[in-house]
Design goal:
Elements: H1 4-18, H2 22-26, H3 36-55, E1 60-64, H4 67-74, E2 84-87, H5 92-100, H6 111-114, E3 119-123, H7 128-140, E4 144-148, H8 150-172, E5 176-180, H9 185-196, E6 201-205, H10 211-214, E7 220-223, H11 228-237, E8 242-246, H12 253-261, E9 266-271, H13 275-278, H14 281-287, H15 290-306, E10 309-312, H16 316-325, E11 332-334, E12 362-366, H17 376-379, H18 385-393, E13 397-401, H19 413-421, E14 425-428, H20 433-440, E15 445-448, H21 460-465, H22 469-477, E16 481-484, H23 488-497, E17 500-503, H24 511-516, H25 520-533, H26 536-552
Parallel strand pairs: 1-2, 1-3, 3-4, 5-6, 5-8, 6-7, 8-9, 9-10, 10-11, 12-13, 12-15, 13-14, 15-16, 16-17
């Protein structure tokens, strides 16, 4: 059974095989854990230490370490059984913070000589010179020293949790194990249909994001609570034939990290937004930073060399262009977030849906709402406030349903202010996929219309090739869509099947007349037919065939050269 250290060494060694810069850029072993799991590991260790001290009948103890360790000590009720608990530190700042935790008279090292303590707890993660000095003072004063190494306890806890989670996954023997930063609802829909066809699925997430909405779609669901080290160690212990990883812009390193941690499983990567289609690398570095841009650029290229199969959630020409750019011959398919029959809202009764230009239309937008202070050159299309104001001036109602894992916060203050100033706009909480479609039936159209400024720097390749998942949600709800003509792939589908209205930027200020001229009953009838013909049940065979091809070895991996 590999240790945590063995796993990290193996991961970095394997990453170096892909590209020499990857281990340095990832800095995996230097990441600061920030998770409830790690916190629990520390608390568990503190509890064990308190129990040991209590058994030894220690009544006066000192803690040589930081205020975080002291705070953890005091959070346990058993700590109240001690007559005295002191922080021992010569630093005035540390002493000041110690007082905020209720320690009125923090001890200095000099107090070790005069205070009648029974034992001291020494944080061995302190720098060597400080640790040696404090330890010597404690021993000189004949105090029993209880060493406490937070990292050792945390790694031990990681080891236990990793073995537990990996053991449960291996025992389940899933046909497909999904992995991701958090669970995009598309994965839920795929898993739902695969299970209908007799497959077992499980999912391991880095973030426990709305798991209560999603656990019904998998046979088992697990999380590493944002702890990358734990995540890698779980992967190293897995014995599953196939892993389906969710790729994402700014997270292109994740599939490589998974491959580096687990070379036994076949790995299929599903692409959603792709960085090099979104903008050029120089602009990418402006949005994030140079290191992230370099990591993303290297990772994207490596994905086309080292995965076992690729899934593109975008138009075929865009996917083909990427394959040619990276000279890749990996097995691939085009696969979208197709409608799921179980989510269909009931058809509206015919008639009564038509409106005149003087009547008020009700529109709905679903998805992430970006704050207005983000760079407009890259996020201006999904900063909806300017568009909302133009709609409201025409007495068009437009409500926004946030994603279930996005909440109103201070970054959306200007949207909230606008919401309070007009009855024509509301920000509503997001709903899971089996509920949102029934909420949408009260609206006339779904919004897939955006404003694009002259200085907009998102590449046309991105806009023309994407097929957002919200499109299929509107189809499941049975309501037509208003689509910007710049979204060429979506616009082509809408025109071909009669699923809504395609509009130009100039059409926004005459939208009521344009919508009133559409035959909404016919549009709805077309939607009912389209969604029935394109349910995911009819497409899942493509995904299953890709899995089989990958498991069988597929064509020669990597690139032509």
């Amino acid at each position: 059974m590999p240790s945590i250290a063995d796993t990290l060494e193996s991961v970095n060694r394997n990453l170096a095989e892909y590209h020499p810069e990857l281990p340095g850029l990832l800095k995996l072993t230097k990441r600061s854990p920030n998770s409830r799991l790690v916190t629990h590991g520390k608390q568990q260790a503190v509890q064990e230490l308190l129990d040991q001290l209590a058994r030894d009948s220690r009544t006066r103890i000192g803690i040589i370490g930081n205020t975080g360790l002291l705070d953890t000590f005091l959070s346990f009720s058993s700590a109240k059984n001690f007559e005295e608990v002191h922080l021992i530190d010569d630093d005035r700042v540390t002493s000041y913070y110690a007082q905020s935790f209720g320690i009125q008279h923090p001890l200095s090292t000099k107090d070790l000589e005069s205070r009648s303590l029974d034992a001291v707890v020494l944080d061995t993660s302190l720098r060597t010179s400080t640790r040696t000095r404090f330890e010597s003072l404690a021993l000189d004063n004949r105090l029993e020293v209880y060493p406490f190494d937070p990292q050792t306890h945390i790694d031990r806890h990681r080891q236990e949790i990793a073995e537990q989670i990996a053991g449960e996954i291996n025992a389940l023997q899933p046909d497909v194990l999904y992995l991701g930063h958090f669970a995009y609802f598309n994965l839920c829909k795929q898993s739902m249909i695969l299970r209908k066809n007799g497959k077992k699925t499980a999912i391991l997430l880095q973030i426990p994001n709305n798991m209560e909405f999603k656990e019904q779609y998998f046979d088992a669901m697990f999380t590493s609570h944002t702890d990358d080290i734990l995540f890698c160690h779980i992967l190293a212990l897995l014995k599953v034939p196939l892993i389906h990883v969710q790729g994402w812009m700014t997270l292109s390193y994740l599939p490589l990290l998974i491959k580096a941690a687990n070379k036994k499983s076949k790995i299929v990567c599903e692409f959603n937004d792709i960085s090099s289609l979104f903008t050029d690398w120089k602009s990418f570095a402006m949005i994030w930073n140079k290191a992230d841009a370099r990591l993303e650029q290297i990772s994207e290229e490596m994905l086309f060399r080292h995965m076992d199969g690729l899934i593109f959630n975008l138009a075929a020409p865009s996917a083909e262009a990427l394959m040619r750019r990276y000279d890749s011959v990996l097995p691939k398919i085009e696969f979208h977030s197709y409608p799921v029959r179980e989510f269909f809202a009931p058809p509206a009764p015919p008639g009564g849906a038509e409106k005149t230009p003087s009547e008020e239309f009700r529109l709905a937008f679903i998805g992430t709402l970006n704050a207005s202070n983000l760079p407009k050159e890259f996020f201006g299309d999904v900063q909806l406030l300017p568009m909302l104001k133009r709609l409201v001036r025409q007495k068009i109602h437009c409500d926004i349903f946030l994603l279930p894992y996005q909440a109103k916060n201070n970054s959306l203050w200007d949207y909230s202010y606008f919401e309070n100033s007009t009855p024509y706009f509301n920000i509503l909480n997001g709903l899971p996929p089996d509920e949102i479609t029934h909420a949408l039936i009260d609206y006339d159209y779904g919004v897939m219309f955006y404003l694009f400024s002259d200085d907009f720097r998102v590449l046309p390749d991105h806009l023309q090739g994407i097929l957002p998942t919200k499109f299929f949600t509107f189809m499941e709800a049975g309501i037509p869509v208003i689509v910007s003509e710049e979204l060429a792939f979506v616009a082509t589908i809408v025109r071909k099947h009669g699923l809504g209205v395609v509009v130009s930027q100039e059409d926004l200020d005459s939208l009521p007349a344009l919508l009133a001229s559409a035959d909404r009953d016919t549009l709805c009838a077309n939607i009912y037919r389209y969604r029935e013909e394109n349910v995911m049940d009819n497409h899942i065979v493509k995904l299953a065939r890709l899995y089989d091809l990958v498991l069988a070895g597929g064509p020669e991996k990597g690139c032509k050269s």
